[in-house]
Amino acid sequence: MAADENYVQFVMDQLGGVGDVQTKKMFGGVGFYVDGIMFGLIGNDKFYLKADDTNVKDYETAGMKAFMSERKGKGMPYYEVPADVLENAGEMKNWALKSVQVARKAKKK
């Protein structure tokens, strides 16, 4: 099932302050990239951001879960963004910028 284009556009609008965000369709979802590095995704009609030990508690505190890859049969380091964060562009920018940093750090390893 392809990601809903209206939802993709809404997420892009909310990421307006993050920088030059690009999208790429993948496996029925959409990946979100800055400088060619993936920091977020839409899967199962939900928006997820990359997490590590620097920001995962933000998601866990909000009761959010990791993205489960059906293909891999396990969780991935992307966590669902809470609705109240996604709906607040300023807060969304803060969370997304943290995930961009996480993605850049992971790329260097």
Oligomer: single chain
CATH superfamily: YgaC/TfoX-N like chaperone
Instruction: Supply the CATH class.
Output: Alpha Beta
SSE series: HEEEEHEEHH
Number of extended strands = 6
How many independent structural domains? 1
CATH topology: Yope Regulator, Chain: A
Distance between the termini: 33 Å
Major beta sheet summary: 6 strands, antiparallel
Mean pLDDT: 91
Written account of the structure:
With 109 residues, the chain is α+β, with helices and mostly antiparallel strands. The protein has a single domain (5-108), classed as YgaC/TfoX-N like chaperone (Yope Regulator, Chain: A, 2-Layer Sandwich). 37% of the residues lie in helices and 32% in strands. The protein is built from four helices and six strands. The chain has helices at 5-14, 56-61, 83-86, 89-108, and strands spanning 21-26, 29-34, 37-43, 46-50, 66-69, 74-80. A six-stranded antiparallel beta sheet has the order 1-2-3-4-6-5. Strand 3 and strand 4 form a beta hairpin. It is globular and about 30 Å long. The mean pLDDT is 91.
Task: Please give a handful of descriptors for the protein shown.
alpha+beta; 32% strand; globular; 109 residues; 6-stranded antiparallel β-sheet; Yope Regulator, Chain: A
What's this model, at a glance?
With 109 residues, the protein is α+β, with helices and mostly antiparallel strands. The chain has four helices and six strands, in the order αββββαββαα.
Write the layout of secondary structure elements.
Blueprint: H1 5-14, E1 21-26, E2 29-34, E3 37-43, E4 46-50, H2 56-61, E5 66-69, E6 74-80, H3 83-86, H4 89-108
Antiparallel strand pairs: 1-2, 2-3, 3-4, 4-6, 5-6
